[in-house]
């Protein structure tokens, strides 16, 4: 007893208090680690490429890749937060991109965007209904929709591709609003990502829906006992990820004006990876929108770094896999360690 | 209670009941609507051969699903197994290459199990990363193209044994049936099989009864990876040419086959017969679709529709039999 009082003397207390608040930060704000890693990686990449990594052209490309990936990953983080997983986002992404490209020349940009979002909504609702109301594991349902809509995507283009020539694209009304236009040299997609971030962050952390979603992921039974309609909350999460993935598809299709059957392949894996790196717990109940965006930025940066340094691009898969495993292992360890120190 | 009803209930409660039903209906359908000679020798040979390959991978997946885990990396392990078999052959010889591949696969299974059980990570994340990692490793190992198997290596007795045929049926099918029989006996007649189901059905109870859960799960992961790599070797022994995309999306087909065969992601359910029938259903439908002149892209859509229909059917069947409402979570 006396020993403890002496170590908690006035000189130590500041150190201990700072350390404690730091640890609480690590535990409570899940994005801390991802944001720190993103900053450190940016610094390391900038130094080792003599600044090429940070130059304007490269940053424009990295931020666009980040934006498209982050919009899907934010949606994914909601589903993961509800304790489920959606691995069909790559296929929804492709469906969104294709619907947009197929309809834009004939019916105008806004009608095409609306229809593509409707497609995303429908697929999300389909997944969500089967998962929430029939109680079938989401891995199986979304695995099936990954298959189904990837096949439909191939069918739509009949093993060819959809494309709109650049001149035609630029002539369309409102085309520049989605991913093609720029602000300060950066792609509009970044603005869209920020919009998604602000809206969903507010929804998640200031509104009742976010609270319910966190409750469902944390403990579905307790949530039910407190009057949360678990099924409806899960259905909503799946619809949101459908909309997010379709919108990301629109942004990408709008920028490149091209989509084929392979559009968005492996996107589901990258989105999940971004969530894990960003501090979302796969068991549900814990998530961070800002962390997920940092995760997407980290993945996009690694990809760009490998290109700049002239390493074989195939190395990306290996590096990303290793990185995600390390992030997941580290995340659990650091959190446990921080919890113990508290 | 009359025995006839009891017997009927026993059949319908089998986890592979859905697969038996689908397989029966499907083959009756194919027999009556035989567009292009589905039952001719050449098609049948291919269907059986590829069912055996998919069946091996689905069998491994079944073991992992029984212990309530999932392995998404089998497609890449299958690919890296087949491709390293070709790549290792010049240095190690045929037998040496096969041994090296199987040992490598066992190591992959061990790594998966260690990260999941010791590292306390979710199986989805670990094996998803495995999928990436080994696919990337294939690209790095091969560069642009995969070399062909040398002709002498093809003539080697080991490859003749794996890739040849006996009594008009490819050897891969015989080997698969042998492996399936061993695993069937293991699952139904041995303590190990009992423990597998126990771990997946209720891990805390199994633990309280003295089952070493982590050890059993580790065996399931190792067996799954080894079977996937062995399927890769069988594929190469039959056809010596392949591409870097070997095994792409194969994990999805394997999981689909296992689920159609009656496995549940909730663990504790699954049979060897189910895995065999699941693989047979998926492969024969692929050939029937190709035979009908459907574009190849229809196949993956079909697998998805089949998978959803089967889980929904099983779910509703469960509700009907046990009178349970679908779970909320």
Automatic annotation (TrEMBL), chain B:
Topology within the bilayer: Multi-pass membrane protein
Cited InterPro entries: ABC_transp_permease
Name used for this protein in its record: Autoinducer 2 import system permease protein LsrC
Keyword check for GTP-binding: no
UniProt GO MF annotations: transmembrane transporter activity
Quaternary state and interactors: The complex is composed of two ATP-binding proteins (LsrA), two transmembrane proteins (LsrC and LsrD) and a solute-binding protein (LsrB).
Keywords, ordered alphabetically: Cell inner membrane, Cell membrane, Membrane, Transmembrane, Transmembrane helix, Transport
Record localization: Cell inner membrane
Residue spans crossing the bilayer: 17-35, 47-67, 94-117, 124-146, 166-187, 218-237, 243-265, 272-290, 296-317
Gene Ontology cellular-component annotations: plasma membrane
Coiled coil segments of this chain: none
Pfam family, one: BPD_transp_2
Protein's job: Part of the ABC transporter complex LsrABCD involved in autoinducer 2 (AI-2) import. Probably responsible for the translocation of the substrate across the membrane.
Protein family: Belongs to the binding-protein-dependent transport system permease family. AraH/RbsC subfamily.
Chief localisation class: membrane
Cross-referenced CDD domains: TM_PBP1_transp_AraH_like
